[in-house]
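Sample entry (88 residues):
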Amino acid sequence: MGISQPQNFKGPPAERPGPYGIRVGLLPGDPFSKLVGPQWHRLHWYPSAALRDAALSEMSRRHLYSRSGDKPALQFEKVENLAESRSV
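Predicted structure, serialized as tokens:
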């Protein structure tokens, strides 16, 4: 099956997730949690802290086409797999 919107495809996921991550979750009381559950979250992993921080900055910024009263509906949290990042 082909890709519907090839301009949005960034390539295959990394074969091995990196030790630095971003946890994306819903804000408390978000009505979307009625569909996906209040504990819904998604983890994005990166091979370095610099790449993770750049991605976090891009994810959490106010988008170009946001309306003046719009507020982000997601919360972002830096996470780290200590055993992997410290080579334990």
